[in-house]
Amino acid sequence: FYTVGYSALLRGSPNMDSLIAVGTTASFGYSIYSLIRIARGDLHGVHGLYFESVGVIITLILLGKMLEAISKGKTSQAIRSLMKLVPETARILREGEELEIPSEQLKEGDILILRPGSRIPADGIVKAGQSTVDESMLTGESLPIDKKADDSVFAGSINLNGAMQVVVSRVGEQTTLGEMIRLVEEAQGTKAPIARLADVVSGYFVPIVMLIALLAAAAWKLAGESWGFALSILVSVLVIACPCALGLATPTAIMVGIGKGAEYGILFKNGEAMELLHRMNTVVLDKTGTLTTGKPSLTDLIPADGFTRQDLLLWVASAEQSSEHPLARAIVDQAVHEQISLLTPEEFEALPGRGVLAKLGGMELLAGNERLMRERNISFGTLEQALNRLTGEGKTPVYIAAGGVAAGIAAIADTLKPDSFSAVQKLKNQGIEVVMLTGDDRRTAEAIAKEAGISEIQAEVLPGDKADVVKRLQEEGKRVAMVGDGINDAPALVTADVGIAIGSGTDVAMESADVVLMHSVLSSVPTAMELSRRTIRNIRQNLFWAFAYNTLGIPIAAGVLHLFGGPLLNPMLAAAAMSLSSVSVLLNALRLKRFKE
Question: Could you give the 3-state DSSP secondary structure of residue 271?
């Protein structure tokens, strides 16, 4: 208290330690003075001894700080739980020999030997074998996930019932688990905007309290009370007013809230994201990979007169074979499944937001959306009935034209995630407007939106225009959270008031977001919103009680009750009250640990 407190006082910025240092020093100094009086034969000086008060005050404050430390330790339990997920040792295959080594000695390229029931020590790719893996401690996903060759596995998850060999791709802090721990640690160390209120108040509070303490002591002395009585008033005011509870009100709740989020696979990157999320009244959901599984498949291939299904599949798959677009991959995967030998295009051009243009054997092939065909004045009138049926079923049509005429339609279906409908309903029940954002044509978008329970749709949106849609909503006075998973979602995630990246997403989307959902279930979004709401409510409760404690405590310590024949607050009781106020704020913050989805 003394080193920090007096240093701050000399710098002209007294803090809570300054209050304790000045109060106890004054008591101790006056006690020394009284002791000298007693030594000189003035026995009245015995009434001015406050040595035991100084000792008890410091003991009580240290006890309070110890309880604070214990409580703060509980707020960091989430990080410790995550750290314990990595096993101490790992079994690897090196030069044909199986070895057991400490996990921290693993390096990229090592081959892990995973037996049933073992915990995985590093991120990697399955080389051989198959199993089911429990990733619930990382993602919150309760169902085990099947793993086979070329699938990814993550440090901290549990290999359940099969043996596998895994090539290590990331170790230590670079693993998904390590990244989670880093994000949680960084976020718990940040301040929410609401914390600035406490900082501003504390900055003015300490000098004002010192002034009140001096004025109260002087007033009682002028009223005829003894120096000892005035000193007791001074010390009581300084000690009881220590704004420890005010300083703890926000950071403890933020730490517990962020830690609780990590338990559910929800990573808030900072305290500001935690605070802002509860204010959102509009959530924009990207369709592919967010509302839907993001793994579309080819369901229909309808040729126009003069063309065959085999021709269409060969041409489109050949044109799209180097594309990473989900719709393109669905067509290529089907061609591979049917063991069709693909051609090499002489020319290829990607048309962003429209489709592709390729030249195969001298023939110009177009594959894309309705907009592309309108731009090229290619009519699909003969296939209109089939188009209406497919879009009515919520399937995405890929228009195919060969040699400048309509050749057929491919239909791609991307099914809703199992929890999408219930997640949308939870958001609506929280009073939040839900908007679906997609590049699909309006008919397809409406079919998917109807299935998901969404009435507000933004369809036929080009990848580069997603951020503009978010801006328009903000200009309408809405506070917007954007949920997405792809590279083309990154500008919209940054533009939104709060960007939320969903777990199956790209690194770019994760980097652009304020909140990262470690698993790809949409129900994490309403859970994150509710956790933010509960955390901010807890902070407000803490701030209210901290302010109320000081508002009531200072007048009592100054002797207002004593003026009217009431009791006088002993400095030791003031110290106990101050410590209890801090502990009560911490205990209230720890109630957040009981939060459930």
Answer: helix
Token reading at 560: 């207002």
The rounded Cα 573 to chain-centroid distance in angstroms is: 41
The pLDDT assigned to 6 comes to: 82
Contact status, residue 414 vs residue 294, Cβ threshold 8 Å:
yes
Contacts of 543 (CB under 8 A, 6+ apart): 194, 197, 198, 246, 249, 250
Query: Looking up tokens 């609506």, which residue turns up?
Result: 428
Cα(350)–Cα(569) distance, rounded to whole angstroms? 79
Pairwise CA distance, residues 43 & 49, whole Å: 11
Contact at 8 Å (CB) between 242 and 262?
Answer: no
Which stretch of DSSP H or E encloses residue 131?
A: strand 131-134
Q: Pairing state of beta strands 282-286 and 480-484? A: parallel
Angle made by CA atoms 329, 143, 123, in degrees to the nearest 5: 65
* pLDDT, tens digit (0-9, with 9 covering 90-100), for 396-451: 899 999 999 999 999 988 788 889 999 999 999 999 999 999 887 787 788 889 98
Radius of gyration of the chain (CA): 33
Helices (H), 12-84: 16-39, 51-75, 77-83
Distances (CA, A) of 27 to 33, 52, 207, 229: 10, 10, 19, 11
Q: Tell me the sheet residues that pair with 364.
A: 359
- Domains, the chain, ordered by start: 2-77+198-253+533-594 (no CATH), 85-184 (2.70.150.10), 264-293+417-532 (3.40.50.1000), 297-413 (3.40.1110.10)
Helix (H, G, I), strand (E, B) or coil at 379: coil
The catalytic residues are: 286
Burial class (CB in 10 A: 0-12, 13-18, 19+), 486: buried
